[in-house]
Specification:
Blueprint (H helix, E strand, L loop, with lengths): L28 E5 L2 E5 L5 E5 H6 L7 E2 L4 E2 L12 E5 L5 E6 L4 E5 H7 L24 E4 H6 L1 H14 L1 E5 L6 H7 L14 E4 L14 E4 L11 E8 L8 E5 H11 L1 H9 L2 E7 L3 E7 L2 E3 L5 E4 L16 H16 L4 E4 L6 E5 L3 E5 L10 E7 L1 H15 L15
Parallel strand pairs: 9-10
Antiparallel strand pairs: 1-2, 2-3, 4-5, 6-7, 7-8, 10-20, 11-22, 12-21, 13-20, 13-22, 14-19, 14-21, 15-16, 17-18
Helix pairs in contact: 4-9, 6-7, 6-8, 7-8
Length: about 400
């Protein structure tokens, strides 16, 4: 798959009805065919709707509202035998249905177009622009001041996270309090056993690898948690520029697609075989999780990555399968370490890298702590909070994008 291709899964396109653009729909004709209602839109395409689905989708005051969660009609309340007694399209842009029990429902034509059987749905795409080592020319860079003070600029940065999984903020003050100030624009900060904000400073008695000066293979953080961190914020306070410690970023989705193409048998292992990650600090915490390195949705689309070579526990497998699992882990590691798959950036004080921890792997080159003082502050926000911010702002600035299906991350 080309690096700049949008990774997507589309539904059946047999109807020829495209609903990706924010246009007004007009229902030209409607007919009742038993357990289906057939609508003809401006495109002249037949749109089929299940009567049972349609009845359950009613959002009147009696049935309740799914958006607010004040919903009173349940699937058990709608029998398979439900039928429409009468359908009416005399109100422009609306379908009115009188059901066999006398209940009356009204539906917006655009809503029906988005959900009819066979539509080429805009929200059937999982948006991810895959990249290798060529991100430098397309990475989104945003001014700290504008993102803090302007909602449209914030939405632009969220778009960059949706597309590439990583973006950069510039001109960030290097005071400690500004780490949380900018991060909280994207959602509530998630507090973990490391606190709300974690200072990454090289020290002799390091608690984690980030507190050492050693090189780190690109990885995702904390894969040993049932729910790993969603989006990570790396705020550069001091970096000892040009003295090593170059940040490395890898698109885990791109690596997964390379494996799907080049070594499909190893790709399959990482999508279906449990891999155990763990972390223990004596008398403090002991995390252990078995999960897939590559998470897929029901259509086979990659939705999340969890991989950290330093957190791999001794693995278990059935007789004869352990070597295959190690082969798959080795191949993923090899691809992650290839320079052509890495975006390399010498982060400067006042820059902040923001990235999707369940897609983007991050690492760094080694540095000499006696020459270069390196201080980064790190915090994270759950992915559902960030995606909620994206959708909420999309309602204002790009309504056609508000209902996009976004990749949900590394699921068990």
């Amino acid at each position: 798959m080309p690096d700049d291709q949008i990774s997507s899964v589309s539904s059946d396109q047999s109807s020829g009805l495209s609903v990706g653009d924010p246009v007004s729909y007009k229902i030209q004709a409607a007919r009742n065919e038993g357990d289906r209602i057939i609508l003809d839109f401006d495109s002249k395409a037949d749109a089929r709707l299940s009567t049972r689905w349609l009845r359950l989708a009613c959002n009147c005051e009696v049935c309740g509202d799914t958006q607010s969660g004040k919903r009173w009609l349940t699937p058990a309340d709608v029998p398979a035998s439900v039928r429409a007694e009468n359908i009416d399209i005399s109100t422009p842009g609306e379908l009115t249905v009188v059901w066999d029990d006398g209940h009356i429902s009204r539906y917006d034509a655009g809503f029906l177009a988005r959900h009819c059987e066979g539509a080429t749905r805009f929200q059937a795409k999982l948006w991810a622009k895959l990249w290798g080592g060529d991100l430098n020319s397309s990475i989104g860079k945003f001014s700290y001041e504008t993102v803090v003070n302007d909602d449209e600029a914030l939405f632009g940065s969220l778009r960059a996270l949706r597309d590439h999984g990583v973006m950069m903020l510039t001109g960030v003050p290097t005071q400690a309090e500004d780490t949380m100030r900018i991060a909280e624009r994207f959602g509530p900060i998630r507090e973990t056993s490391y606190g709300k904000v974690f200072d990454l400073i090289s020290k002799p008695e390091a608690r984690v690898a980030g507190e050492t000066a050693r090189a780190q293979i690109p990885h995702t953080d904390e894969p040993f948690r049932y729910s790993p961190p969603g989006f990570i914020f790396f705020h550069a306070i001091k970096t000892g520029a040009h003295m090593g410690g170059t940040s490395l970023m890898v698109d885990g989705f791109h690596i997964a697609e390379l494996m799907r193409t080049q070594t499909p048998e190893l790709f399959e292992i990482l999508t279906r075989h449990g891999v155990t990650f763990h972390r223990e600090h004596a008398d403090e915490v002991f995390f252990s999780t078995e999960a897939h390195v590559i998470s897929l949705d029901s259509k086979g689309q990659v939705t999340g990555i969890r991989f950290n070579d330093r957190c791999l526990a001794p693995q278990e497998a059935r007789d004869g399968q352990i070597d295959d699992l190690i082969d798959a882990l080795a191949e993923y590691t090899r691809l992650v370490c290839l320079p052509e798959n890495q975006f390399q950036h010498q982060v400067q004080p006042g820059e902040m890298l923001v990235f999707d921890n369940q897609r983007i792997l991050h690492g760094r080159s080694s540095f000499d702590p006696t020459v270069a003082e390196r201080h980064l502050r790190s915090c994270n926000i759950d992915r559902d909070a960030v995606h909620s911010a994206f959708r909420t702002l999309a309602r204002r600035f790009a309504p056609q994008e508000a209902e996009q299906v976004l990749y949900q991350g590394a699921i068990l």
